[in-house]
Amino acid sequence: MQGANRLWMSLIGVNVIVIGFVAYSAMAPGALTKTMLMPGKTSHGHYQIEMRCDVCHTEGSGIREDACLDCHAEELRRANDTHPSSKFNDPTNAELLSILDAQNCLSCHREHVDEQTLPMGLTMPSDYCYHCHQETLTTRPSHANFAFDSCATAGCHNYHDNRALYENFLNKHADEPDFLDEMVRLTRSTPTPPESKRLTKSNADAPEDWPTDETILDDWASTAHAAAGVNCGDCHSIKDKDAPKSDKNNEPRWSQSVALATCGECHQNEAETFLQGHHGMRLAQDLPAMTPGESRIAMHTDAAHRTLDCNACHSGHRFDTEYASVEACLSCHNDEHSQSFLGTSHHDAWIKELAGEAPRGSGVTCATCHMPRIEDEGGDRFVQHNQNDNLRPNEKMIREVCMNCHGLAFSIDALADSQLVKECFATAPSIHIESVDLARARFEEKQRKKEARLKKK
Protein backbone atom coordinates (compact mmCIF):
# COMPACT_ATOMS: atom_id res chain seq x y z
CA MET A 1 0.00 0.00 0.00
CA GLN A 2 2.81 2.35 0.91
CA GLY A 3 4.52 1.60 -2.41
CA ALA A 4 1.33 2.41 -4.32
CA ASN A 5 1.05 5.73 -2.50
CA ARG A 6 4.63 6.59 -3.44
CA LEU A 7 3.87 5.72 -7.06
CA TRP A 8 0.80 7.97 -7.07
CA MET A 9 2.76 10.81 -5.47
CA SER A 10 5.48 10.40 -8.09
CA LEU A 11 2.93 10.53 -10.90
CA ILE A 12 1.31 13.62 -9.40
CA GLY A 13 4.74 15.24 -9.07
CA VAL A 14 5.59 14.50 -12.69
CA ASN A 15 2.26 15.94 -13.83
CA VAL A 16 2.81 19.11 -11.81
CA ILE A 17 6.25 19.54 -13.39
CA VAL A 18 4.90 18.96 -16.91
CA ILE A 19 1.98 21.36 -16.37
CA GLY A 20 4.33 23.94 -14.89
CA PHE A 21 6.70 23.56 -17.83
CA VAL A 22 3.88 24.00 -20.36
CA ALA A 23 2.54 27.02 -18.46
CA TYR A 24 5.97 28.60 -18.42
CA SER A 25 6.30 27.92 -22.15
CA ALA A 26 3.05 29.73 -22.78
CA MET A 27 3.58 32.69 -20.45
CA ALA A 28 7.26 33.46 -19.92
CA PRO A 29 8.82 36.08 -22.23
CA GLY A 30 11.51 34.49 -24.35
CA ALA A 31 10.74 30.86 -23.49
CA LEU A 32 12.23 28.78 -26.31
CA THR A 33 9.43 26.23 -26.24
CA LYS A 34 6.97 28.91 -27.40
CA THR A 35 7.96 27.99 -30.94
CA MET A 36 6.03 24.73 -30.45
CA LEU A 37 2.80 26.70 -30.01
CA MET A 38 3.10 28.92 -33.08
CA PRO A 39 0.51 28.57 -35.83
CA GLY A 40 3.13 28.92 -38.55
CA LYS A 41 6.59 30.19 -39.46
CA THR A 42 7.41 33.80 -38.60
CA SER A 43 8.60 36.12 -41.39
CA HIS A 44 12.20 37.18 -41.89
CA GLY A 45 11.45 40.55 -40.32
CA HIS A 46 10.14 39.26 -37.00
CA TYR A 47 11.51 35.79 -36.35
CA GLN A 48 14.18 37.14 -34.00
CA ILE A 49 11.47 38.29 -31.57
CA GLU A 50 8.93 35.54 -32.21
CA MET A 51 9.21 34.40 -28.58
CA ARG A 52 7.71 37.71 -27.42
CA CYS A 53 4.17 36.99 -28.60
CA ASP A 54 2.86 39.78 -26.37
CA VAL A 55 4.61 42.42 -28.49
CA CYS A 56 2.00 41.93 -31.22
CA HIS A 57 -0.79 39.95 -29.54
CA THR A 58 -3.19 40.75 -26.74
CA GLU A 59 -3.89 38.23 -23.98
CA GLY A 60 -6.90 36.93 -25.86
CA SER A 61 -4.62 36.02 -28.80
CA GLY A 62 -5.94 38.94 -30.83
CA ILE A 63 -3.53 41.16 -32.77
CA ARG A 64 -2.95 44.68 -31.51
CA GLU A 65 -3.70 47.06 -34.37
CA ASP A 66 -1.13 49.54 -33.13
CA ALA A 67 1.62 46.95 -32.71
CA CYS A 68 3.09 47.61 -36.17
CA LEU A 69 3.37 51.34 -35.54
CA ASP A 70 5.04 50.80 -32.17
CA CYS A 71 8.14 49.78 -34.13
CA HIS A 72 7.65 51.26 -37.60
CA ALA A 73 5.95 54.64 -37.11
CA GLU A 74 9.21 56.59 -37.09
CA GLU A 75 10.48 54.79 -40.19
CA LEU A 76 7.27 55.65 -42.05
CA ARG A 77 7.47 59.27 -40.90
CA ARG A 78 11.04 59.62 -42.16
CA ALA A 79 10.03 58.06 -45.46
CA ASN A 80 7.16 60.54 -45.85
CA ASP A 81 4.87 57.54 -46.28
CA THR A 82 3.13 57.80 -49.65
CA HIS A 83 0.18 55.69 -48.49
CA PRO A 84 -0.57 56.66 -44.87
CA SER A 85 -3.88 55.42 -43.47
CA SER A 86 -5.13 59.03 -43.34
CA LYS A 87 -4.96 59.13 -47.14
CA PHE A 88 -7.96 56.82 -47.28
CA ASN A 89 -10.24 58.70 -44.87
CA ASP A 90 -12.12 60.30 -47.77
CA PRO A 91 -15.56 58.61 -48.01
CA THR A 92 -15.08 58.31 -51.78
CA ASN A 93 -12.49 55.62 -51.06
CA ALA A 94 -15.00 53.40 -49.25
CA GLU A 95 -15.53 51.15 -52.27
CA LEU A 96 -11.79 50.69 -52.77
CA LEU A 97 -11.30 49.92 -49.10
CA SER A 98 -13.89 47.18 -49.34
CA ILE A 99 -11.59 45.44 -51.85
CA LEU A 100 -8.29 46.21 -50.12
CA ASP A 101 -8.28 47.71 -46.63
CA ALA A 102 -5.24 49.97 -47.03
CA GLN A 103 -5.77 51.43 -43.56
CA ASN A 104 -4.82 48.18 -41.86
CA CYS A 105 -1.19 46.99 -41.94
CA LEU A 106 -2.36 43.38 -41.66
CA SER A 107 -4.10 43.55 -45.01
CA CYS A 108 -0.68 43.21 -46.61
CA HIS A 109 1.59 42.11 -43.77
CA ARG A 110 0.33 39.02 -41.97
CA GLU A 111 2.45 36.72 -39.87
CA HIS A 112 2.69 32.93 -39.62
CA VAL A 113 1.61 32.34 -43.25
CA ASP A 114 4.94 31.37 -44.76
CA GLU A 115 3.35 29.89 -47.89
CA GLN A 116 1.91 33.35 -48.73
CA THR A 117 4.84 35.51 -47.67
CA LEU A 118 6.70 37.19 -50.55
CA PRO A 119 10.38 38.27 -50.38
CA MET A 120 9.45 41.79 -49.21
CA GLY A 121 7.42 40.44 -46.31
CA LEU A 122 4.12 40.96 -48.11
CA THR A 123 1.34 38.42 -47.85
CA MET A 124 -0.85 40.11 -50.48
CA PRO A 125 -0.77 39.00 -54.13
CA SER A 126 1.66 41.18 -56.07
CA ASP A 127 -1.16 42.81 -58.08
CA TYR A 128 -2.35 44.87 -55.10
CA CYS A 129 -1.52 48.21 -56.79
CA TYR A 130 -3.86 47.39 -59.67
CA HIS A 131 -6.93 47.48 -57.42
CA CYS A 132 -6.70 51.27 -57.14
CA HIS A 133 -4.62 52.29 -60.17
CA GLN A 134 -6.24 50.47 -63.10
CA GLU A 135 -6.69 53.74 -64.96
CA THR A 136 -2.92 54.18 -65.26
CA LEU A 137 -2.82 51.58 -68.03
CA THR A 138 -5.06 53.79 -70.13
CA THR A 139 -4.04 57.32 -69.05
CA ARG A 140 -0.33 56.66 -69.42
CA PRO A 141 0.51 55.31 -72.91
CA SER A 142 4.01 54.44 -71.63
CA HIS A 143 2.45 51.98 -69.17
CA ALA A 144 -0.01 50.34 -71.55
CA ASN A 145 2.04 47.19 -72.06
CA PHE A 146 3.17 46.74 -68.46
CA ALA A 147 1.91 43.69 -66.59
CA PHE A 148 -0.81 44.50 -64.05
CA ASP A 149 1.28 42.98 -61.24
CA SER A 150 4.55 44.74 -62.09
CA CYS A 151 4.04 48.10 -60.32
CA ALA A 152 6.31 47.18 -57.41
CA THR A 153 9.02 45.76 -59.66
CA ALA A 154 12.46 46.80 -58.40
CA GLY A 155 13.20 50.36 -59.49
CA CYS A 156 9.59 51.28 -60.35
CA HIS A 157 7.31 52.08 -57.41
CA ASN A 158 7.59 51.68 -53.65
CA TYR A 159 4.32 51.64 -51.72
CA HIS A 160 5.60 53.35 -48.55
CA ASP A 161 8.98 54.91 -49.38
CA ASN A 162 9.03 56.51 -52.81
CA ARG A 163 11.70 59.11 -52.03
CA ALA A 164 14.08 57.91 -54.74
CA LEU A 165 11.46 56.97 -57.35
CA TYR A 166 8.98 59.84 -57.68
CA GLU A 167 8.85 61.60 -61.05
CA ASN A 168 10.34 64.98 -60.10
CA PHE A 169 13.35 63.32 -58.49
CA LEU A 170 13.87 60.95 -61.43
CA ASN A 171 13.73 63.81 -63.90
CA LYS A 172 16.01 66.04 -61.84
CA HIS A 173 18.79 63.43 -61.86
CA ALA A 174 18.13 62.00 -65.32
CA ASP A 175 21.37 63.16 -66.92
CA GLU A 176 23.82 62.10 -64.23
CA PRO A 177 26.81 59.98 -65.33
CA ASP A 178 27.20 56.42 -64.06
CA PHE A 179 30.20 57.47 -61.96
CA LEU A 180 30.31 60.88 -60.32
CA ASP A 181 33.53 62.88 -60.58
CA GLU A 182 33.76 63.19 -56.80
CA MET A 183 32.41 61.15 -53.93
CA VAL A 184 29.78 62.96 -51.86
CA ARG A 185 29.98 61.76 -48.30
CA LEU A 186 28.94 63.01 -44.89
CA THR A 187 31.51 63.21 -42.13
CA ARG A 188 30.49 62.36 -38.60
CA SER A 189 29.81 65.09 -36.05
CA THR A 190 32.83 64.42 -33.85
CA PRO A 191 34.33 67.69 -32.60
CA THR A 192 38.00 67.56 -31.70
CA PRO A 193 38.32 67.63 -27.88
CA PRO A 194 40.77 70.09 -26.31
CA GLU A 195 44.24 68.73 -25.61
CA SER A 196 43.70 69.32 -21.89
CA LYS A 197 41.15 66.49 -21.81
CA ARG A 198 43.44 63.88 -23.33
CA LEU A 199 44.23 60.97 -21.00
CA THR A 200 47.20 58.62 -20.98
CA LYS A 201 47.85 55.23 -19.40
CA SER A 202 48.96 56.87 -16.19
CA ASN A 203 45.53 58.50 -15.84
CA ALA A 204 43.61 55.21 -15.89
CA ASP A 205 41.28 55.10 -12.87
CA ALA A 206 40.65 51.36 -12.62
CA PRO A 207 40.61 50.11 -8.98
CA GLU A 208 43.96 49.02 -7.60
CA ASP A 209 42.62 45.55 -6.83
CA TRP A 210 41.44 45.09 -10.42
CA PRO A 211 43.86 43.16 -12.65
CA THR A 212 45.45 45.64 -15.05
CA ASP A 213 46.40 44.43 -18.52
CA GLU A 214 49.00 46.60 -20.25
CA THR A 215 47.60 45.65 -23.67
CA ILE A 216 44.16 46.88 -22.64
CA LEU A 217 45.60 50.14 -21.36
CA ASP A 218 47.60 50.62 -24.56
CA ASP A 219 44.47 50.02 -26.64
CA TRP A 220 42.38 52.41 -24.57
CA ALA A 221 45.03 55.14 -24.56
CA SER A 222 45.11 55.15 -28.37
CA THR A 223 41.37 55.65 -28.82
CA ALA A 224 39.10 58.65 -29.24
CA HIS A 225 37.74 57.81 -25.79
CA ALA A 226 41.03 58.61 -24.08
CA ALA A 227 41.49 61.66 -26.29
CA ALA A 228 38.08 62.95 -25.17
CA GLY A 229 38.75 62.32 -21.48
CA VAL A 230 36.61 59.17 -21.13
CA ASN A 231 38.26 57.16 -18.37
CA CYS A 232 37.83 53.51 -17.35
CA GLY A 233 35.30 54.36 -14.66
CA ASP A 234 33.06 56.25 -17.06
CA CYS A 235 32.13 52.93 -18.66
CA HIS A 236 32.90 50.31 -16.01
CA SER A 237 31.71 52.06 -12.85
CA ILE A 238 27.98 51.46 -12.40
CA LYS A 239 25.46 52.82 -9.89
CA ASP A 240 22.00 51.49 -9.19
CA LYS A 241 19.87 53.91 -11.23
CA ASP A 242 16.71 52.94 -9.36
CA ALA A 243 18.12 53.90 -5.97
CA PRO A 244 17.04 57.32 -4.61
CA LYS A 245 19.56 60.14 -4.99
CA SER A 246 19.59 60.57 -1.21
CA ASP A 247 20.92 57.00 -0.76
CA LYS A 248 24.49 57.54 0.41
CA ASN A 249 25.14 53.80 0.33
CA ASN A 250 24.59 53.62 -3.41
CA GLU A 251 28.27 53.31 -4.14
CA PRO A 252 29.30 52.55 -7.71
CA ARG A 253 30.38 48.98 -8.38
CA TRP A 254 32.99 47.95 -10.90
CA SER A 255 31.69 45.86 -13.78
CA GLN A 256 33.89 43.98 -16.22
CA SER A 257 31.20 44.13 -18.92
CA VAL A 258 29.70 47.32 -20.32
CA ALA A 259 25.96 47.51 -21.00
CA LEU A 260 24.47 48.90 -24.20
CA ALA A 261 22.77 51.60 -22.12
CA THR A 262 26.20 52.81 -21.00
CA CYS A 263 27.36 53.16 -24.61
CA GLY A 264 24.09 54.94 -25.37
CA GLU A 265 24.82 57.67 -22.83
CA CYS A 266 27.28 59.16 -25.33
CA HIS A 267 26.22 57.42 -28.54
CA GLN A 268 22.45 57.79 -28.27
CA ASN A 269 21.58 57.70 -31.97
CA GLU A 270 23.82 54.71 -32.60
CA ALA A 271 22.39 52.77 -29.65
CA GLU A 272 18.78 53.53 -30.57
CA THR A 273 19.19 52.51 -34.21
CA PHE A 274 21.12 49.37 -33.23
CA LEU A 275 18.07 48.19 -31.29
CA GLN A 276 15.89 48.66 -34.37
CA GLY A 277 17.81 46.24 -36.61
CA HIS A 278 18.23 42.47 -36.57
CA HIS A 279 21.49 42.77 -34.64
CA GLY A 280 19.82 44.40 -31.64
CA MET A 281 16.07 43.93 -31.89
CA ARG A 282 16.09 41.02 -29.43
CA LEU A 283 17.68 43.23 -26.78
CA ALA A 284 14.99 45.85 -27.42
CA GLN A 285 12.38 43.27 -26.40
CA ASP A 286 14.25 42.11 -23.27
CA LEU A 287 15.37 38.88 -24.94
CA PRO A 288 18.91 37.46 -24.86
CA ALA A 289 21.20 39.03 -27.46
CA MET A 290 21.12 37.53 -30.93
CA THR A 291 23.80 35.07 -31.99
CA PRO A 292 24.80 34.38 -35.63
CA GLY A 293 23.69 30.79 -35.14
CA GLU A 294 20.09 32.06 -34.92
CA SER A 295 20.26 33.75 -38.32
CA ARG A 296 18.40 32.45 -41.36
CA ILE A 297 21.20 33.42 -43.75
CA ALA A 298 24.57 31.69 -44.05
CA MET A 299 27.01 32.40 -41.21
CA HIS A 300 30.44 31.01 -40.32
CA THR A 301 30.02 28.04 -38.01
CA ASP A 302 32.77 29.23 -35.68
CA ALA A 303 30.79 32.46 -35.12
CA ALA A 304 27.54 30.70 -34.23
CA HIS A 305 27.65 31.45 -30.50
CA ARG A 306 28.99 35.01 -30.53
CA THR A 307 26.85 37.51 -28.66
CA LEU A 308 25.84 40.49 -30.76
CA ASP A 309 26.37 43.59 -28.70
CA CYS A 310 28.52 46.68 -29.20
CA ASN A 311 31.75 44.79 -28.55
CA ALA A 312 30.91 42.19 -31.19
CA CYS A 313 32.01 44.71 -33.83
CA HIS A 314 33.85 47.32 -31.78
CA SER A 315 36.41 45.18 -29.98
CA GLY A 316 36.75 46.06 -26.31
CA HIS A 317 39.03 49.03 -25.49
CA ARG A 318 40.27 49.46 -29.06
CA PHE A 319 36.87 50.33 -30.62
CA ASP A 320 38.47 49.97 -34.03
CA THR A 321 36.08 51.40 -36.62
CA GLU A 322 38.24 50.04 -39.45
CA TYR A 323 37.78 46.52 -38.11
CA ALA A 324 34.07 47.14 -37.64
CA SER A 325 33.70 48.31 -41.25
CA VAL A 326 34.62 45.02 -42.97
CA GLU A 327 36.36 42.35 -40.91
CA ALA A 328 33.73 42.28 -38.19
CA CYS A 329 31.00 41.72 -40.80
CA LEU A 330 32.82 39.01 -42.74
CA SER A 331 33.86 37.16 -39.59
CA CYS A 332 30.16 36.23 -39.17
CA HIS A 333 28.46 36.61 -42.56
CA ASN A 334 29.16 33.77 -44.97
CA ASP A 335 26.50 34.36 -47.62
CA GLU A 336 27.37 34.87 -51.29
CA HIS A 337 26.77 38.63 -51.28
CA SER A 338 29.02 39.28 -48.27
CA GLN A 339 31.89 37.05 -49.32
CA SER A 340 31.79 38.37 -52.91
CA PHE A 341 32.73 41.83 -51.59
CA LEU A 342 36.36 40.74 -51.47
CA GLY A 343 37.98 41.52 -54.80
CA THR A 344 35.39 44.02 -56.04
CA SER A 345 36.32 47.56 -57.06
CA HIS A 346 34.67 48.74 -53.82
CA HIS A 347 36.98 46.50 -51.79
CA ASP A 348 40.00 47.59 -53.83
CA ALA A 349 39.23 51.22 -52.98
CA TRP A 350 39.09 50.29 -49.27
CA ILE A 351 42.45 48.49 -49.45
CA LYS A 352 44.03 51.54 -51.09
CA GLU A 353 42.65 53.80 -48.37
CA LEU A 354 44.06 51.56 -45.63
CA ALA A 355 47.42 51.53 -47.37
CA GLY A 356 47.48 55.33 -47.55
CA GLU A 357 47.36 55.25 -51.35
CA ALA A 358 43.96 56.98 -51.49
CA PRO A 359 42.36 59.80 -49.46
CA ARG A 360 40.73 58.98 -46.15
CA GLY A 361 37.04 58.26 -46.66
CA SER A 362 37.43 57.23 -50.30
CA GLY A 363 37.11 53.50 -49.64
CA VAL A 364 33.84 51.59 -49.75
CA THR A 365 33.11 49.02 -47.04
CA CYS A 366 30.22 46.88 -45.82
CA ALA A 367 29.37 49.67 -43.39
CA THR A 368 29.46 52.32 -46.14
CA CYS A 369 26.35 50.79 -47.69
CA HIS A 370 24.60 49.07 -44.78
CA MET A 371 25.43 51.53 -41.99
CA PRO A 372 25.63 54.91 -43.75
CA ARG A 373 26.19 58.24 -42.10
CA ILE A 374 22.97 60.18 -41.83
CA GLU A 375 21.67 63.32 -40.12
CA ASP A 376 19.17 63.47 -37.31
CA GLU A 377 16.58 66.22 -37.08
CA GLY A 378 19.00 68.41 -35.13
CA GLY A 379 21.57 68.24 -37.92
CA ASP A 380 23.97 65.97 -36.03
CA ARG A 381 25.60 63.33 -38.20
CA PHE A 382 25.89 59.79 -36.96
CA VAL A 383 26.32 56.24 -38.21
CA GLN A 384 23.02 54.44 -38.80
CA HIS A 385 23.38 51.22 -36.77
CA ASN A 386 20.13 49.65 -37.98
CA GLN A 387 21.79 47.61 -40.71
CA ASN A 388 18.37 46.51 -42.01
CA ASP A 389 17.08 50.04 -42.55
CA ASN A 390 17.81 50.17 -46.29
CA LEU A 391 17.68 46.49 -47.24
CA ARG A 392 14.05 45.73 -48.12
CA PRO A 393 13.24 47.06 -50.62
CA ASN A 394 16.77 48.04 -51.50
CA GLU A 395 15.71 51.19 -53.37
CA LYS A 396 15.87 52.80 -49.93
CA MET A 397 19.65 52.65 -50.35
CA ILE A 398 19.68 54.92 -53.41
CA ARG A 399 19.63 58.38 -51.82
CA GLU A 400 21.70 57.73 -48.69
CA VAL A 401 24.30 55.44 -50.26
CA CYS A 402 24.46 54.81 -54.00
CA MET A 403 24.09 58.41 -55.15
CA ASN A 404 27.15 59.42 -53.14
CA CYS A 405 29.20 57.88 -55.97
CA HIS A 406 26.83 57.01 -58.82
CA GLY A 407 24.14 58.56 -60.98
CA LEU A 408 20.51 57.76 -60.25
CA ALA A 409 19.84 55.61 -63.35
CA PHE A 410 22.95 53.51 -62.75
CA SER A 411 21.98 53.06 -59.10
CA ILE A 412 18.46 51.89 -59.95
CA ASP A 413 19.74 49.43 -62.54
CA ALA A 414 22.36 47.99 -60.17
CA LEU A 415 19.95 47.45 -57.29
CA ALA A 416 17.35 45.87 -59.59
CA ASP A 417 19.89 43.34 -60.93
CA SER A 418 19.42 40.42 -58.53
CA GLN A 419 22.45 38.53 -59.82
CA LEU A 420 24.63 41.61 -59.43
CA VAL A 421 23.39 42.00 -55.85
CA LYS A 422 24.51 38.43 -55.12
CA GLU A 423 27.92 39.26 -56.60
CA CYS A 424 28.13 42.38 -54.42
CA PHE A 425 28.21 44.72 -57.42
CA ALA A 426 31.43 43.30 -58.84
CA THR A 427 30.55 44.53 -62.36
CA ALA A 428 28.24 46.99 -64.10
CA PRO A 429 24.50 46.14 -64.15
CA SER A 430 23.33 43.92 -66.98
CA ILE A 431 19.70 45.10 -66.98
CA HIS A 432 18.04 48.46 -67.49
CA ILE A 433 15.00 49.85 -65.68
CA GLU A 434 13.03 52.47 -67.62
CA SER A 435 11.97 54.60 -64.65
CA VAL A 436 14.29 57.54 -65.39
CA ASP A 437 13.64 57.36 -69.14
CA LEU A 438 9.88 57.40 -68.63
CA ALA A 439 10.02 60.31 -66.22
CA ARG A 440 12.19 62.35 -68.57
CA ALA A 441 9.94 61.57 -71.55
CA ARG A 442 6.86 62.60 -69.55
CA PHE A 443 8.42 65.94 -68.52
CA GLU A 444 9.60 66.61 -72.09
CA GLU A 445 6.07 65.94 -73.34
CA LYS A 446 4.65 68.34 -70.75
CA GLN A 447 7.16 70.98 -71.85
CA ARG A 448 6.23 70.54 -75.53
CA LYS A 449 2.55 70.96 -74.72
CA LYS A 450 3.27 74.03 -72.63
CA GLU A 451 5.29 75.62 -75.44
CA ALA A 452 2.53 74.79 -77.93
CA ARG A 453 -0.04 76.54 -75.73
CA LEU A 454 2.18 79.61 -75.46
CA LYS A 455 2.54 79.80 -79.25
CA LYS A 456 -1.24 79.77 -79.68
CA LYS A 457 -1.46 82.81 -77.43
Keywords:
457 residues; mainly alpha; two-stranded antiparallel sheet; 21 helices; 4 strands; globular
Outline of the structure:
The protein is mainly alpha-helical and 457 residues long. It has helices at 2-27, 67-78, 94-99, 136-139, 167-172, 214-221, 224-227, 232-236, 260-264, 268-274, 281-284, 310-313, 321-325, 327-330, 336-340, 345-354, 366-370, 397-400, 408-416, 418-422, 435-456, and strands spanning 237-238, 253-254, 373-375, 381-383.
Element layout with pairings:
Elements: H1 2-27, H2 67-78, H3 94-99, H4 136-139, H5 167-172, H6 214-221, H7 224-227, H8 232-236, E1 237-238, E2 253-254, H9 260-264, H10 268-274, H11 281-284, H12 310-313, H13 321-325, H14 327-330, H15 336-340, H16 345-354, H17 366-370, E3 373-375, E4 381-383, H18 397-400, H19 408-416, H20 418-422, H21 435-456
Antiparallel strand pairs: 1-2, 3-4
Question: What would your notes on this structure say?
Answer:
This protein is mainly alpha-helical and 457 residues long. The protein has a domain at 195-389. Helices cover 35% and strands 2% of the residues. The chain contains 21 helices and 4 strands. The protein has helices at 2-27, 67-78, 94-99, 136-139, 167-172, 214-221, 224-227, 232-236, 260-264, 268-274, 281-284, 310-313, 321-325, 327-330, 336-340, 345-354, 366-370, 397-400, 408-416, 418-422, 435-456, and strands at 237-238, 253-254, 373-375, 381-383. A two-stranded antiparallel ribbon has the order 1-2. Strands 3-4 form a two-stranded antiparallel ribbon. It is globular and about 90 Å long. The relative contact order is 0.10. The chain crosses the membrane at residues 7-27. Its main location: other. Residues 46-134, 224-334 form the Tetrahaem cytochrome domain. Residues 188-211 are annotated as: Disordered. Its EC number is 1.7.2.2.
